[in-house]
Amino acid sequence: MTLEAGELHERDHEGFLSEVHSFEFWFQSVEGYLHGHPHGVSPSTPFPELAPDRRAALVATLSTYCVGELTALEGASGMIGFAPNRATKIFLATQVADEARHLEVLLHRLAELGVEDAEAGFEARANRHLMAFRERLLAYVVEKDWLAALFAQNVILEAMEFAAFQTHLRTADARTAELLGGVLKDERRHIGFGENALGRHLASHPDDRRRLREVRQSLEPLVFATFEDAALQVGLPAAERPEIARLYLDSVARLGLGT
Amino acid sequence: MLDARTAYSIQYWLESCPQGYLLHTEFGHERGAREPGFVLENPVVREEAIGTTVQLVVGERAALAASSGLINAAPDAASKAFLATQTLDEARHVEIFTQRLFDLGVKRDELESTIAHHANPHLVRFAEILLEKVDKKDFVAGVVGQNIVLEGLAFSTFEMMQAANRDTNPKFARTLSGTIADERRHVGFGENRIGSLLREQPGKKPEIERMQKDMAYHMLATLADRFRGQSAAMQEARRAIEEQASHGGPTPRSHVWHGTDLSKAEPREMEAVLAETVLKEFKTRLARIGLDYQSPERP
Amino acid sequence: MREPLLASADFDPAEDAGARDGAARSERRRFVLLDDTGFDEVPAKYRRFYRRWRGPGDVLAENEVLCPVCRVVIRSARELRPGDRVYCMPCMSRLEVVRGEAGRLEAIVRY
Q1: A-chain residue closest to C49, CA distance
Q2: How many domains is chain C partitioned into structurally?
């Protein structure tokens, strides 16, 4: 059902969800910021000269992002098979395309930075805590554990990426910043979908909070270690580091999954 | 020249599909287009249209599950990226054909029961055979089943339906032409990517050929059920079209598809021409990737 | 689009709670949302309902509230009051407007 723009906030919830989970909504949304931006960057954005140490740090950071996006691509695609309904499957399909695009634009940026065969080497350069997180998330997907996979993928991983990219934007060169800005716009949908889908579920199945708290506790050391490393890598001052995890912690608190 | 890495990329897909032939469409057709009166107002024709559309939804749901399930089994980033675009294509197909069910008057809370009622059991089994391979993360068998067998069936079926609806139901014909454009990419990927992988893994051929034979049997059985059971509805649709034309509606012209005039052919003739076309395509495509087509029993 | 209830022949608007607070609603300030806010993450027809948040120093107007999930500013064509429901399309959340501890309007998620 297509909503009338003039009455947006007065629509019924079901009609709203039906529209925002659709291909049509996704297509018209991404059109606004992807058109004319091949590989996520305007053709007129200059190629900055980077000092060797800054370039090396950027290559390492982008490689970690690649692992995050590959994990999200594999996670979201694997979840379609056991997603609970049609609208969720269609939303996840749009997320799959988003994640594949993110991986593609990051690999393209690595190639611009002179990395040969970026695809072959990014896992070796990536953060080891994130690699461990990936293994855990994909295990939930293999087990077809919908709640745990959705929580790990669309709440934890997406919040981690959102926070990292938003922080990195402040210090990044123009091309990297523009690329990350476009990725962030996609992440907003993914984070919102995860929190809202879980929130709706927990409203009718409050007992499942116990299980999700266990998932949270088992993954959190990896999440915070990744946050810490990312903050160091992008040069975030120590005083600002707690902020990087704020988005994730706020989301967990809203869902009633705090300690 | 377009290399595989570029052709399988999200960027290429964005420029050719959403920013190309889908631009200015909604649910795959022109904005505001409606199903014609002879479909909405004639209960027999409407029921037949619902039955046919349900088969499309069932097929596309299987394709969505298969293409998304194969991403984790794909051996390289380019294949993962292509399958990501295919996943979204298939999700779009599920959405537009589901929307057609709503346009035909199916109530939202009756969607699943309508699908369960009309879904052909052979088509369901056809999908299950494919999804068994996907569940086992068998990339080569999965892509042959999905991008050559299932997509090959969809490609020819959509082409025939598009030709038959061009004059009398432009909304549905436009929806189909967008899906045909998508299927072209999917069958192309199937042939090009799997051809090279099969050369590396020749031992997989017998198992894949067995899968193709089973899938082909259930495909033929689906077509037989659909066409043989719809004779009365088809005649009623033709009568309704003539009646609409006599009141100033679009005049149906003859559309010859693979030698058969779709505006006049009997259901058995249509079944035969579709089955022959699909099987011929299978044989050609399978031969190109080094597989021998296995003839199924005739249902 | 008409409210389904209003299409019903036996519907009495005088008995409807929504109609009862219609008078209060009409007293609210109205806002024209025709400006292009530069927000490009939702379909064009909905873009006027959102704008980017400019950080802690950003002052929200009477018709604006911040989405706690994705930190985008949501805009309404009328002055917002506690109890109002708004949608954040960029993150697909349904929110309720509440009065926060600091006395400002805030939004909480209603899953």
Answers
A1: A8
A2: 1
Flag if B95 and A90 touch (Cβ within 8 Å): yes
C41: in domain: yes
Contact between C69 and A251 using a beta-carbon 8 Å cutoff = yes
The superfamily CATH assigns to domain B4-288 is Ribonucleotide Reductase, subunit A (1.10.620.20)
Domain that includes residue C61, residue range: 29-109
Hey, where are the domains in chain B?
A: 4-288
Q: Is the pLDDT of residue C98 over 80?
A: yes
Question: Does residue C12 fall inside a structural domain?
Answer: no
Of the partner residues A31, A78, A103, the one whose CB lies closest to the CB of residue B72? A78
Q: What share of chain C is helix, strand, coil (3-state, %, to 5)?
A: 20, 25, 55
Largest CA distance in chain B: 62
Nearest to B95 among A23, A80, A100 (CB): A23
Q: List Cβ neighbours of A142 (8 Å cut-off, separation of 6 or more).
A: A78
The mean of the pLDDT values for chain B is 90
The DSSP 8-state label assigned to residue B74 in this structure reads -
Mean per-residue pLDDT of chain A: 89
- Using CB atoms, pick whichever of A20, A199, A254 lies closest to residue C89: A20
How close does chain A come to B225, measured CA to CA in Å?
27
Whether residue C85 and residue A20 make contact (CB cut-off 8 A), yes or no, is: no
- Most C CBs within 10 A among A1, A3, A9, hence the mutation to make, goes to A9
pLDDT (tens digit per residue) in B7-49: 778 888 888 877 778 878 889 999 899 999 999 999 999 999 9
Six-digit token string for B189: 């990927």
| Residue A71 to residues A89, A125, B129, B274, Cα–Cα distance (Å) | 18, 15, 28, 42
Going by CATH, does the domain composed of A50-254 fall within 1.20.1260.10?
yes
What is this model's ipTM?
Answer: 0.84
* Binary contact (A196, C68; C-beta < 8 A): no
Tokens coding A20:
């925002």
Q: Could you tell me the sign of the dihedral formed by the alpha carbons of A113, A119, A121, A124, in that order?
A: positive
Burial level of A39, CB count in 10 A (0-12/13-18/19+)?
buried
What is the DSSP code (8-state) at residue B91? H
